[in-house]
């Protein structure tokens, strides 16, 4: 089965072409341009380089969050548009699940951390075993303050391997909190990659075996939604006076 994956949940645009779980080609861009400016030229170049055509695709996978609210919407809209035009099944995966593949085969617990702004991380915790074909999720995805996340991890005894777009930025803070129990992978391994999404999409497809309705996975409300809720509460309060 030939398929395409799209990940625009962070500042990285990551796409991949894969067949039966094996990556054929991937694109990675971490520039000042927006996802909407990058994604279609990347797709054109990747298909040309792989000598594939859109008509050969049998599935489209997309990373649906958590991450950037705008990025999530762009990725899902692009995937949905292609799936509708090509009449293909669509499947969605979580960004943190995909990033767990950065730690494939490692002995440490894998902790993806994504910048959630407001001094918070989107995070989860995973573990690979010699027998496993995918990482076991030990802590479900959630938004935590940086201090709260590190305090929770300090209580564990095992070593922790950090991946994700916040890992490199917080390397000193992580190492100060966890000492030699912390391993922070470099950006070329820990940033979102099309290859990681391709592996997780194939695992997901093997699990469900059918297309699905893909919706954004935000974890928390956006700034606009928070402000709207505040205005609504204020408006209702005024109406009751």
What do you see in this structure?
The longest helix has 18 residues, at 69-86. The strands form 2 sheets. The protein has a 5-stranded mixed β-sheet with strand order 3-2-1-4-5, with helices on both faces. Strands 8-7-6-9-10 form a 5-stranded mixed β-sheet. A hairpin with a 4-residue loop joins strand 6 and strand 7. It has helices at 35-50, 69-86, 95-99, 146-154, 171-178, 187-190, 194-208, 223-240, and strands at 2-7, 13-19, 22-29, 59-63, 90-93, 109-115, 120-127, 136-145, 160-163, 182-184. The protein has 2 domains: 2-95 and 192-225, Nucleotidyltransferase, domain 5 (2-Layer Sandwich); 96-190, Nucleotidyltransferase, domain 5, CATH 3.30.420. The model has no long low-confidence stretch (mean pLDDT 93). With 241 residues, it is α/β, with parallel strands linked by helices.
